[in-house]
UniProtKB/TrEMBL annotation:
Name of this chain's protein: Polyketide synthase
Domain PKS/mFAS DH per the UniProt entry, residue ranges: 901-1190
Protein keywords: Phosphopantetheine, Phosphoprotein, Transferase
Ketosynthase family 3 (KS3) domain location: 11-435
Listed SUPFAM superfamilies: ACP-like, FabD/lysophospholipase-like, NAD(P)-binding Rossmann-fold domains, Probable ACP-binding domain of malonyl-CoA ACP transacylase, Thiolase-like
Organism: Microbispora siamensis
Positions of region (N-terminal hotdog fold): 901-1028
UniProt region (C-terminal hotdog fold), positions on chain: 1039-1190
Keyword Disulfide bond: no
Record-annotated active site: H933 (proton acceptor), D1103 (proton donor)
Domain Carrier: 1701-1775
């Protein structure tokens, strides 16, 4: 086949090595191919979320302003994006064009498809060429000017479609977005081809993107009848009547063919040639031209160097227009149709018939389709072709439409095709595509076999990791593990969240991944998180001494690993000179023939295995930064370090061990759990007959000496409960028994020639780094004789920054000791062991590599398991999409284009009178400066805001005439929150007879069914006869103000008064005062300069002008009282302000100095020229002797919490698994649970209560559950049998029998839990998960009785995670009579090992406890009456007295205050005050824990007082201590008042018609409290008792109180915990009582009242982050709840660590606010740039910190790769420095 077209030598082909797409109906090339082969049509109606189609649709062309077609091709989820993957903040993501976002994700998919990795990008020059036409997202946003910001602009720039790819993939070559209309993406490919051939880049990304978000373009094309009304592209058909718009993105990765082959890339197809041209001048700008298209075609085939007739198929532009189709066919026939046989016509088709016209992405979409065609040898049908277009002479041309799917025509040449794309602006492009060259790969089937492989999987978030693991699992159903694992190592970027599986077969790997996907963890699946700065890790290789040898060690590696075998052979060659046995024969020996029990065989064999393992490890690309050897292991360490050659090392190890053998039978060694100090003391006590031979860890030593002495020591230690065991040797090395060997060893080692070495070696003889050249014979004598200082050496390494340790040993020997030393040194690290007994050698080595990998250590997969070129399509990244979308919404009150006041907007005039009304919302999001004025940590509308609103109303009314605001009165405070705007209305009435107009401001209360309005401020507005010009008063004469006030101290004093002014409200820069006058210089804060002229006088600045009056109060005795403004006699704004204005404020006190309650001032504000800017006469502030009701109510509303029970989906029954379990139970359900676990493949051991430990049978034993000794015996026995630790320990308790039992009997079960916890945590490294299963401890569905003894277990169980997070303690509650369904659910819950930690199972339903904020119950009268008696147990204590006083204030007139010793002297004054208020207060000395005492007291009340109507138990006893410190007596100390006392009061009053029965419990029983396990259990009992009473129809309320500020025993105890700083602040008694008043008349049985910041709390107690109880609360925590500004003065008083933690928490809040992330997603370990912090946001962050902390940290610091914790350290350093160096004064200022 030939044609007459000239060809020329071809330029180098370009290889398509990667491609990805996201198109209508197809999110990948694979899905696109399936769609094409099925002949699917992906056109749909326009989604409703794009634009309101009904407003713009008219089903006809040419209707002005209307869209002729309601159809298109659309990509699903266009509003979604994985912002976290790309490190883009939610704020920026929402402002970013979806085209950018799609391009980033699809480019990454193409990047992965090409097998590229980020780690290699710095070595390459990568270019990007992207076609893009439209900017619809910008068009949607640009009309709302005040919502535009930098991210809106950069996020909509067309160039960003290319630049985003370059940024995300670290591509440093040319990056350009281009617009050639519909041919844009193919122009991009053509430019990429040119760039690659020119050598301008090593690889290129090319493609295009299109998104349809507005109807604009479609409406325009509809006017030209270009749109197909039926939404179908009918290419080349007689019905062709226009095209349909579609969206999508396609990206190709291109390389030159030679580079692709050299890189071993998989090649999808070749681009042989490419050309582009333009029609030039023609009949019409938009009319397609045959000559122009033919010119592009001929140029493309010249460029390709191939005959056009060799092309079998062309993917046409094929839009389906009546004009374009005939022109395109004519051009194709003129160039490609010539010279073809009649039976071999050119086949043409168009993907637009499937997907529509993707415009800027159309060319690349057609190209991807064509690549798939040449690759697969199949031509899918071009749709919608039924009647050939009559304008085309089909019978006369050699072109045919491919209207049915068919096999590629058979030809004796590579499959070859063309792709055309034509732009409406005349640019024509054609690409010549050819099938990829055939490549051959060596047959590795024999090499792979059953060889273990390491499969690494990584992602950027945990959710993505789980999803990606599942994708690999699915892939392994059909792919080879060898191919997948090798490719995953070298052809995927390794992200921070990591997972690794070591397996021999694909089936094994898939099963492990399946288990991981189901449970989030699985045996044999390693997971971890890499530190971003993983290159900073330092690695030490550890070589242990004797003890890890076993018969068969290394045997399989001799056969499987040539490097290992060669090293063993080298060792054997050297050892022949010094030993008379064969190393290889010994390693291959069976147990009967093995001589490893002989020390002179064992030690050289261990040495050889260590050396061979190290050499193999090095061949895999690992290198140490230091080595350390333990005893004999130091010989291998010295050789690996390069200090000893192999001959010297063999001389030492063989000679040393041979000499030691002579001492066999003379000594013994024992490992003991003692500190070295305690061990030395013990040895001294026994006369020094043993020695400390080895110091392995903080509490791990080895003693050496005569056998009888060692055995005697072990017996004594066992009696003390201290662990100890004999080491399996019969020598006493590192002791005086080695002294006789000194001279023979020196003589033997005289020929040694040690060198400096090339790896640092830390000596376990000295505990420090050693010069290798000094390791002569004398050193090796010390190595044998002196103690092994392993702990010192490891701790020294930890202090030197080493955090990675690899133990080269046949079996783990020192790993645990290394971990203990790391913890002791305050460090953290990764410790792995090369081999493990009975684990195949390569498997064990790969498992060690896997553990290193998942912890972020470098693994060179190209050397560990090289990729041989067997290309397997690895799974693409599973995007974790969230919605990011900006729909411009006009908020109420927002003023645009000068259309009203910035706060209140424009006025509405009400007819018929001249009444003006403003309806507006106030919130700190719209007006951020409002957040900077706070009273008692709550944003409050400043009093000056009312001045501004009244002035603004006057300005509207008087229109330029002069006016004043008079008699302004502030009736109540208005508090603000970020998430709930406050709605207000201002009203200006018509002028009255006196020509004044009344102004009133109202606040809306929307909490009820109807909106209630209450006035918050009033004023009179009247015209004045004053001149319009501002009067001139002159600048203040500072000589009249002799005392200078420190500005910092002034604001600190305001904070002590409860007033926090920051940002623009903190505007005073200098302050001077006299006796009754003050003057201040003010600065205008930059944050409020924009739009300043739209205010009469900005509220923040006016507030700052009035603040100096507070400096005159310090001498009045009210230094710590809060003052709030209440009235202003007259206020005027004389002139507007502008940026740069310098202001002065002067104030004179005009009220008497002896009245601190109400203080009045006259204030003038002047500019720098002395002109009066504003005057405020008769400004009054009132002292608050107590919080006003609205403040108290506002504070109280933040305190109420409750546990809600959320129903969850039932858990599936997990796959059977072999694992040991321990079930501790006194209930028949325990045995049933064991049967269920056994049926699922487990090995449960049932532990039942009994008199002492004994084993009944293999699956059952009894013990005393309160005996530590019994538990220790059980655990030792289980450990010895290999069944410890179990997968979990389940403690399942039976329902409590006998309602009347209280005290120690009632809470015996809780004490047994305490004993169990102590036993399980004796070895934290082997601590199993603990499940506490109770019966009727909770009422999740609000019905059924509750057993308070089981609720007490929940109280204790909530403390365990604080003190022992390793137990992962979780609570499950069962109903009183659990059925088989509940038992199945319980078994599934435990076997699934899920993340829920508080669960209740009821009647087939599964509930999870969630602590949530609760709204205050509606206000009702407190149920207190004057003709009744109220008993308060603990009534003479602090909280009890406050409760009594509150009852009196609410009408109670008869009280009985009960205390064990009556009333203390300190209570006399408060009791007298209550009696003065008319109350009869009786004090009773009684112990409520005594039933007889309570009965006697109640009898006396019944006889002598009005009926008892209310009971309060506020009694408390504390004996705090950690769980480990609590013995029997201390555990039960808090029980008597709360358990016995509450039960006695319940029992003896249940027949009385009480209005309330109130128990003061503690928040400790709800959220737990470290060091208060006993107290939490006691309070948990009270909680359960309240629910029990309620189930009996009796009144009951238990309040889980937080901290009453400075009140009671608990508050005093909590000072030690510094709870305020940890998110558990105190609250005022008035706030507590405000909540109590609402609760007492509500139906609640239990409520928590606490000032709780869960984000801060879980920061200090990170174990609680996994608590499902706090899950919703932490997610829902509003930013304002924990974003209080830091106090510089307070920070100055704190230590470095505490101050650093507070600043870190503060910075987390600020970063979260700036990048717009929920606070709980930001922690100090994160790096802001990974959260999307860019330079603009860094400026904002810097400004926030500068305003709050008054320090200036350079912006560049925030853009460095520092963690937030690191930034906190920097900020603290600046803070300390600024405290030492005072701010310099302005030398130009007056009086300076």
């Amino acid at each position: 086949m030939s044609s007459n077209h000239e060809t020329r030598p071809a330029l180098e082909p370009i290889a398509v090595v990667g491609m990805a797409c996201r198109l209508p109906g197809a999110r990948s090339p694979e899905e696109l191919w399936e769609l094409l082969c099925r002949g699917e049509n992906a056109i749909s109606e326009i989604p409703s979320d794009r634009f309101p189609i009904e407003e713009v649709y008219a089903p006809a062309s040419g209707v002005p302003g209307k869209l002729a077609s309601k159809y298109g091709g659309f990509v699903s989820g266009i509003d979604e994006f994985d912002a976290e993957f790309f490190g883009i903040s939610p704020r920026e993501a929402a402002a970013t064009d979806p085209q950018h976002r799609m391009v980033m994700e699809v480019a990454w998919e193409a990047f992965e498809d090409a097998g590229l990795v980020l780690e290699r990008m710095p070595e390459l020059t990568g270019a990007v060429f992207m076609g893009v036409i439209t900017n619809d997202y910008w068009d949607r946003q640009s009309g709302v000017l005040e919502e535009l910001d930098v991210h809106t602009v950069t996020g909509s720039a067309k160039g960003g479609n290319a630049g985003r790819i370059s940024h995300a993939l670290n591509l440093t070559g040319m990056s350009v977005a281009l617009d050639a209309a519909c041919s844009s993406s193919l122009v991009a490919v053509q430019l990429a081809v040119q760039s690659l051939r020119a050598g301008s880049c090593d690889l290129a990304f090319a493609g295009g993107v299109n998104a349809i978000l507005t109807p604009d373009h479609g409406i325009g094309f509809s006017q030209g009848a270009m749109m197909a009304l039926d939404g179908q592209c009918k290419a080349f058909d007689a019905r062709a009547n226009g095209y349909v718009r579609s969206e999508g993105v396609g990206v190709l990765v291109l390389k030159t063919l030679s580079r692709a082959l050299a890189d071993g890339d998989r090649i999808h197809a070749l681009i042989r040639g490419a050309a582009a041209g333009n029609d030039g001048h023609s009949d019409g700008f938009m009319a397609p031209q045959v000559h122009g298209q033919q010119a592009a075609l001929r140029a493309a085939y010249r460029d390709a160097g191939v005959d056009p007739a060799s092309v079998a198929y062309v993917e046409a532009h094929g839009t389906g227009t009546s004009v374009g189709d005939p022109v395109e066919i004519a051009a194709l026939d003129g160039v490609l149709g010539q010279g073809r046989p009649k039976d071999r016509p050119l086949l043409v088709g168009s993907v637009k018939t499937n997907l529509g016209h993707t415009e800027a992405a159309a060319g690349v979409t057609g190209l991807i389709k064509t690549v798939l065609c040449v690759k697969n040898g199949w031509l899918p049908a071009s749709l919608n072709f039924t009647t050939p277009n009559p304008s085309i002479a089909w019978d006369e041309i050699r072109v045919r439409v491919c209207d049915r799917g068919e096999v590629w025509p058979q030809e004796n040449q590579p499959r070859r095709a063309g792709v055309s794309s034509f732009g409406i602006t005349g640019t024509n492009v054609h690409i010549v595509v050819e099938e990829p060259p055939q490549t051959t790969h060596p047959d590795e089937s024999r090499e792979g076999g059953d060889r273990p492989m390491l499969l690494p999987v990584s992602a950027r978030t945990p959710g993505a990791l789980t999803a990606l693991g599942a994708r690999y699992r699915d892939l392994l159903q059909t792919a080879s593990l060898q191919d997948v694992a090798a490719a995953a190592g070298v052809r995927r970027t390794h992200h921070d969240q990591r997972l690794a599986v070591v397996a021999v077969t694909a089936e094994e790997a898939a099963a492990k991944l399946d288990a991981y996907a189901a449970n989030g963890h699985a045996e044999g699946v390693y997971t971890g998180e890499a530190d971003e700065l993983g290159g900073a890790n330092r690695t030490a290789w550890v070589f242990p001494g004797q003890g890890a040898q076993w018969v068969g060690m290394g045997r399989d590696l001799l056969d499987q690993e040539p490097v290992f075998a060669a090293a063993i052979a080298d060792c054997e060659n050297m050892m022949r000179r010094y030993a008379d046995w064969s190393l290889t024969a010994e390693l291959r020996a069976d147990p009967e023939a093995s001589r490893l029990t002989e020390i002179d065989v064992a030690q050289p064999a261990i040495f050889a295995v260590q050396v061979a393992l190290a050499r193999l490890w090095r061949s895999w690309g690992f290198e140490p930064d230091a080595v350390i050897g333990h005893s004999m292991g130091e010989v291998a360490a010295a050789h690996v370090a390069g200090v000893l050659d192999l001959d010297d090392a063999a001389r030492i190890i063989c000679g040393r061990s041979r000499l030691i053998r002579a001492t066999s039978g003379r000594g013994a060694m024992a490992a003991v759990e003692l500190s070295p100090e305690r061990a030395e003391a013990l040895i001294a006590e026994r006369g020094g007959r043993a020695v400390l031979a080895v110091h392995n860890g903080p509490a791990s030593c080895v003693l050496a000496g005569a056998a009888e002495e060692i055995d005697a020591i072990l017996r004594d230690l066992d009696a003390e409960g201290v662990f100890g065991r004999r080491v399996q040797v019969d020598i006493a090395s590192h002791s005086p028994q080695m002294d006789p060997l000194r001279e023979p060893l020196l003589e033997l080692l005289a020929p040694l020639r040690p060198r400096q070495g090339d790896v640092p070696l830390i000596s376990t003889v000295t505990g420090r780094f050693v010069d290798g050249a000094s390791m002569d014979g004398a050193y090796w004598v010390d190595n044998l004789r002196e103690p092994v200082l392993f702990a010192d050496a490891v701790q020294h390494l930890a202090g030197s920054g080493f955090d990675t340790f690899v133990e080269f040993s046949p079996n783990p020997l020192l790993a645990r000791a290394v971990q203990q030393n790391l913890r002791h040194a305050g460090g953290d690290g990764v410790v792995v062991t090369a081999l493990t007994r009975d684990t195949p050698g390569r498997t064990a080595l790969l498992e060690a590599a896997a553990e290193l990998y998942v912890n972020g250590r470098a693994v060179d997969f190209s050397r560990l398991q090289p990729h041989r070129g067997h290309h397997v399509p690895l799974p693409s990244y599973p995007w974790q999409h969230a919605r990011y979308w900006k729909d411009p919404v006009r908020r109420p009150g927002v003023v645009r284009d000068g259309g009203g006041h910035p706060i209140i907007g424009a006025a509405l005039t009400l007819a018929p009178a001249d009444t003006l009304v403003w309806d507006f919302d106030l919130d700190t999001e719209r007006l951020p400066y409002l957040h900077h004025h706070q009273v008692h940590d709550m944003p409050m509308l400043s009093g000056t805001a009312f001045h501004e609103l009244a002035l603004a109303a006057g300005e509207e009314a008087y229109r330029g005439r002069t006016f004043a605001v008079e008699d302004l009165r502030i009736e109540r405070a208005v508090f603000l929150t970020a998430d709930v705007p406050q709605r207000l209305q201002a009203r200006l009435d018509p002028a009255g007879a006196d020509h004044t107009r009344r102004w009133t401001c109202y606040l809306a209360d929307t909490t009820g069914e109807t909106t209630e309005w209450s006035p918050v401020a009033t004023a009179l507005v009247c015209s004045t006869n004053s001149p319009e010009e501002a009067p001139w008063e002159g600048r203040p004469d500072l000589t009249c103000y002799p005392w200078t006030v420190d500005v910092g101290e002034h604001y600190a004093a305001l904070r002590r008064r409860g007033i926090q002014q920051t940002g623009p409200f903190q505007a005073i820069v200098a302050l001077h005062r006299a006796e009754a006058a003050v003057a201040a210089e003010l600065r205008l804060d930059a944050s409020i300069t924009a739009g300043l002229d739209r205010y009469m006088f900005h509220p923040a600045l006016l507030d700052a002008a009035l603040q100096p009056v507070m400096a005159l109060l310090d001498d009045t005795g009210g230094a710590h009282h809060t003052y709030l403004p209440v009235r202003t006699t007259r206020c005027r704004a004389h002139r507007r302000l502008w940026a740069g204005t310098r202001l002065w404020s002067t104030a004179v006190r005009i009220s008497p100095a002896d009245d601190p309650g109400l203080v009045e001032f006259d204030v003038l504000v002047k500019d720098d020229e002395g002109r009066v800017v504003a005057s405020v006469d008769g400004f009054q502030i009132r002292r608050l002797d107590e919080d006003p009701p609205e403040v108290t109510e506002r504070k109280a509303a933040r305190l109420l919490y409750g546990v809600e029970w959320a129903e969850l989906d039932p858990l599936p029954d997990p796959a059977p698994g072999h694992a040991p379990w321990l079930v501790v139970s006194d209930s028949p359900v325990g045995a049933e649970l064991c049967d269920s676990l056994a049926a699922a493949g487990g090995e449960p051991l049932l532990v039942q209560p009994g008199a002492g430990y004994r084993r009944l049978d293999p699956r059952r034993c009894v013990l005393d559950p309160a005996s530590t000794q019994d538990w220790t015996m059980l655990i030792k026995e289980q450990t010895a049998s290999g069944a410890w630790p179990p997968r979990a320990v389940v403690r399942l308790s039976a329902p409590h029998s006998g309602e009347g039992a209280t005290g120690p009997e009632a809470l015996a079960g809780s004490y047994e839990v305490l004993t169990l916890v102590k036993a399980l945590t004796s070895d934290p490294q082997a601590a199993p998960r603990l499940w506490l299963v109770t019966t009727a401890a909770q009422a999740p569905d609000g019905i059924g009785d509750v057993d308070p003894t089981h609720t007490a277990v929940w109280g204790l169980g909530r403390v365990i995670p604080y003190e022992h997070p390793e137990l992962r303690c979780s609570l499950i509650d069962l109903p009183g009579n659990p059925d088989s369904g509940v038992l199945r659910a319980l078994s599934a819950e435990i076997r699934n090992d899920g993340t829920e930690t508080e669960i209740a199972l009821r009647g087939g339903r599964r509930y999870a406890g969630r602590l949530s904020r609760r709204p205050l119950p509606p206000a009702r009268p407190v149920p207190v009456r004057p003709d009744a008696t109220y008993l308060i147990a603990g009534g003479c204590g602090g909280v009890g007295l406050l409760t009594a006083d509150w009852l009196v204030r609410n009408g109670a007139r008869h009280l009985v205050l009960v205390g064990r010793s009556g009333a203390p002297e300190s209570a006399a004054e408060q009791i007298a005050a209550m009696r003065s208020a008319g109350a009869n207060v009786h004090v009773a000395a009684a112990d409520i824990a005594s039933r007889e005492a309570v009965a006697d007291l109640l009898n006396r009340i019944a006889r002598d007082m009005p009926p008892l109507r209310g009971v309060v138990n506020s009694a408390v006893v504390l004996d705090d201590g950690t769980l480990a410190q609590l013995d029997h007596a201390r555990f039960f100390a808090p029980m008597s008042p709360k358990v016995d006392g509450s039960w006695n009061l319940h029992e003896l009053t249940r027949h009385l018609p009480l209005d309330f029965f109130l128990m003061y419990s503690s928040a400790a029983s709800v959220i737990g409290s470290p060091g208060q396990g006993n107290y939490s259990a006691a309070n948990g009992y009270q909680d359960g008792l309240a629910w029990h009473r309620q189930s009996c129809g009796l009144p009951a309320l238990t309040v889980n109180w937080g901290q009453w500020a400075a009140t009671g025993q608990v508050a005093k105890a909590n000072k030690d915990l510094r709870l305020n700083e940890r998110g558990f602040a105190g609250f005022a008694p008035a706030e507590a009582q405000a909540v109590l008043g609402r609760l007492l008349s509500s139906p609640h049985a239990q409520a928590s009242v606490m000032s709780f910041d869960p984000t801060a709390w879980t920061h200090y107690f990170p174990a609680l982050r996994t608590s499902s109880l706090l899950r919703h609360l932490v997610q829902d925590e509003s930013p304002d709840a924990s974003a209080a500004d830091l106090d510089r003065a307070a920070l100055a008083c704190l230590g470095e660590e505490e101050a650093g933690q507070l600043i870190a928490a503060y910075l987390c809040r600020q970063v979260a606010a700036v990048v717009q992330l929920p606070e709980e997603k930001v922690d100090p370990a994160q790096r802001p740039h990974r959260l999307g912090l860019d330079s603009l946001m860094a400026v904002q962050l810097r400004n926030r910190i500068a305003a709050d902390l008054e320090i200036n940290v350079p912006v560049a610091v925030f853009l460095q790769r520092r963690t937030i914790g690191d930034l906190a350290t920097v900020a603290l350093a600046h803070l300390r420095e600024s405290a030492v160096t005072p701010h310099s004064s302005d030398p130009a200022g007056p009086g300076r």
